[in-house]
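User: Structure tokens for both sequences below?

Assistant:
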Amino acid sequence: MRRLLIGAGLAVLITAPLGADVTIKATNSGKVMGMSGDLQTTTYVKGMKMRVDTVSGDTTRTSVYDVENQKLYTFDNKKKEADVWDMAAFSAEVSKAVTVEGMTSSVKANGQTKQVAGKTANGYDIVVTVPADMGGMKMTMNLTGTTWVVKGAPGTADYIAFYKAAAEKGWIFSDPRAAKGSPGQAKAMSQMYEQYAKLDGLPYASDMNIKASGEGPMAGMMAKMGNMTMTTVTESVDTAAISADMFAPPVGYKLNAKK
């Protein structure tokens, strides 16, 4: 489930006017690696940092993405400790399993529109293909879907700046534990977010599918598990100021360095 939570929360990153903070509430549903669920996420953005909170019962799971300092923090409100990932080293590790030369991605307007959170959004079709090597077995991760973009929405410049900076540093927007097992999927999702940065607007909703193709037992196993899907719809956006301490583990939490 955690792999779904992080990916779903990121899919609706929306920023406010230049220099402003933003809080986004969204509804997410999907199926990732055989797990499924419907959930609510809250995403906070401040400069080059983003926080995603997911509430399940009385537990709040949090991921903090510090692009500027190349750190990812994951923690919850129960254990009083946080895992810390060096994303520069981790992104380099994931890239070893992905054939960059054969990777393709595109985003094209499809001429459709729909209302999302009281705004008119334009449809764009996204296609991402990522060759990957998992344990010596070759396969291809195919991501396809539609994102609904509000053109000229406030915060577009900040949104583009955030993902461009992340792309330049080779960020992988997935739980590292999940990405190690499915590097092709993780890279495909990162390419999706990079494509978002090329749009003249903000994605308010998305419907995505990820399917593995290829030969060998790994591809056959993933095909039996079915496609991985992710749907996200924005509910509300608030541009009130956010405290800087929201983008770090709480004071007193034990920090665990991860590799």
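Moving on to the next sequence.
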Amino acid sequence: MAIKTFKPVTHSLRHTRIVDFVELTESKPLKKLTSGKTKTGGRNNRGRQTVAGRGGGHKRRLRDIDFFRSAKDGVPARVHSIEYDPNRSSFIAQIWYKDGTKAYILAPHGLEIGKEVMSGPQAEPRLGNCLPLSAIPQGLAVHAVELQPGKGGQIARSAGAQCIVAGRDGDWINVQLPSGEVRKFHPQCRASIGQLSNLDNMNQNFGKAGRRRWLGLKPKNRGVSKNPVDHPHGGGNDRGTEGGTPMDRHGNIAKGPKTRNPRKPSNAMIVRSRRGQATTTVA
């Protein structure tokens, strides 16, 4: 997948860099595997804004992605198409099982139409297959890793993301996450082989504000340009921050201090933090 550039006939096209989708299949999504998506505009069930900068955008339909890959263990499936999903940064693959069932999975980089994929402990550690971590050789790149067995893939699901199986540590499997953190996983947690597709997603330049509005992303003002009632940085006669400490609009410190609870139970599963430091369990 390459980056597409444009002839600079307008100011916005001069800097526009978007992904070229020539490798995707020109077909409509499978209707029975899609559903309507209700927009919230960043509001909760009480109508209050909980996420800033959300709203508008093009109408979308949700794709029913199979993050479990356990219902058809041992049944081979053929990749029918590689499709675009407006709800995620990576591409998805439509697979047809040998018994006639159809499903969507996350498409790893290099997966082609006509290739065969399989899930289950007996599957080979090949691109697109889904296996327990105990059956995956050390050093392989994986995605959609389960945090708990049977919970479905949760780790490394965005474009270009991958985890590395670092090896066995007693009864656990050490996996290096995209952040650099090394974490212990249960051997029966499943993961899919390969790095996720759309590697050039991070190299895009939308070129104009309107393209972000199509994605449902609204413009955000700087805190120092607001009134004191709207942001801790607001007001005053200059651009300084309140007390010299950057904060968000709720008054929470935005830079510097760690926000993870040192007594969180899952800290015991972290072998090395994303800052490269060995972790110690707080009693």
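User: Anything stand out in the second?

Assistant: DSSP finds two helices and 17 strands in the chain.
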